[in-house]
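Support reply, case 0932

Customer input (verbatim):
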Amino acid sequence: MFRDFYGSILNEIINSPDNLPYPVRKINFKKGECITKYGQIEDAVYFLNVGIVEMTIKSYVTEKVIDFFFENEMFTSLTSFLTQQSSDVQMKALTDCEAEVIFYQDLQIAYTSSLNANKFGRILIEQAYVKKAKREKDFLSKTAEERYAEMFRTHPQYISQIPVNKIAKYLGIHPESLSRIRKKLNS
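Our regenerated output:
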């Protein structure tokens, strides 16, 4: 429902008779290619047409998977994009990806003269907030098994394309625990 609501608003903006008040460019990323590196200032927001992107953060011991982005989702290193300071997250293509990109400077210029640009920016922030809040609530209220089952239910076509160790990191468990969960759910 969330995606349907925002998807319809974004389609309305994109298909507006005024057209988009900023240039949108297509870009491709190869599997394993870094889209945004740690320490880089994020200068773009992306709409993923094809593929899977992972977002990671460094902890004192290891790297943790914060999120995955799938087809028809927007992604960016949001804090860096908004503040124009160094990114504390990294985004990498898990598969070959095709995305549409809007650059920060183009969006800032469009904000000064376009209601559609402002609506787009608001929707971007709202989507990111709702997704982040849902993930936090899920971590606090659901077991790893419940989170995996939901991931499998909402994105079954992608699960086989994501390495098991990355799914385990995303769930906050060890790969062996994920294997037990998968075995239990498949029986």
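We compared this against your earlier run and they match. Two observations from our side: The domain at 2-141 is CATH 2.60.120.10 (Jelly Rolls). The radius of gyration is 17 Å. Please reopen the case if you see a mismatch on your end.
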